[in-house]
Amino acid sequence: MNRYEFQLRISPDQYLNYYRGTVRHVIARCTTGQNVQFPANLLQKFVSPEGISGNFVLTCDANNKCIDLQRIVVRG
After folding, report:
1. Does position 7 have pLDDT exceeding 80, yes or no?
2. Which of 6, 39, 53, 74 lies most in the core, judged by the most C-beta atoms within 10 Å?
3. Bridge partners of 53?
4. Class of 2-72 per CATH?
């Protein structure tokens, strides 16, 4: 399995493009410097009135098919 860690900050107005289907994928820069692309619908459970904000981990299988997206707490 592959694991990608990244930070997202998406305003409510920006998220409307994902919600409406105008934009279907999110591209994020991982903590390793590489970019990862995933379906925007994975973010639905993280939407708040302030948009989407936080640190996330995307887990994919060996074929890079998305398995899970979780918000994580970074300590330090």
Report:
1. yes
2. 6
3. 9
4. mainly beta
